[in-house]
Amino acid sequence: MTVVEAYDGRITEQRWDWVLSRVNVAEVGKDEAREARRLLSDAKLHGHKHVIAAVLAVIARRQKGQVTVLTSDPGDLERLVPGTILVKKI
């Protein structure tokens, strides 16, 4: 979702495929949606503005080892992930 969000129209299809080949693209289904909704509820957040952050938080929480999430809006993510997950603004 973050890669799609970062797309600005200037990237060629070939470059886009190269980027996607170097990242782990997580599948999002009903379980992830349920968990994201719970995170939003616990953080007293709702609405489309926070949805991507919530889904990214779910995916980040499931990763093993040290986890860093890159985002243009660190505020929401920092509210949705534990302190062990590093959130960096890009």
What are the SSEs and their pairings?
Elements: H1 2-6, H2 13-21, H3 30-42, H4 48-61, E1 67-71, H5 74-80, E2 85-89
Parallel strand pairs: 1-2
Helix pairs in contact: 3-4
Structural write-up:
This protein has 90 residues and is mainly alpha-helical. It has one domain (2-89). Helices cover 53% and strands 11% of the residues. The chain is built from five helices and two strands; from the N terminus they run ααααβαβ. A two-stranded parallel sheet has the order 1-2. α5 links the parallel β1 and β2 (85-89). α3 (30-42) packs across α4 (48-61). The longest helix has 14 residues, at 48-61. The model has no long low-confidence stretch (mean pLDDT 90).
Short description:
This protein has 90 residues and is mostly helical. Helices cover 53% and strands 11% of the residues.
Please name the defining characteristics of this protein.
90 residues, mainly alpha, two-stranded parallel ribbon, 5 helices, 2 strands, globular
Please indicate the count of domains.
1
Q: For the residues shown, what is the average pLDDT?
A: 90
**Share of β-strand residues:** 5-15%
Q: How are helices and strands ordered from N to C?
A: HHHHEHE
Number of helices: 5
Instruction: State the separation between the terminal residues, measured CA to CA.
Output: 15 Å
Shape: globular
| Neighbour order of strands in the largest sheet | 1-2
Residues in helix, %:
40-55%
Main sheet? 2 strands, parallel
The residue ranges in which pLDDT falls below 50 over 5 or more consecutive positions are none
- Oligomeric state as shown: single chain
The count of DSSP E runs of length 2 or more, i.e. the number of strands, is: 2
Instruction: Report Rg.
Output: 14 Å
Which structural category fits the helices and strands? mainly alpha
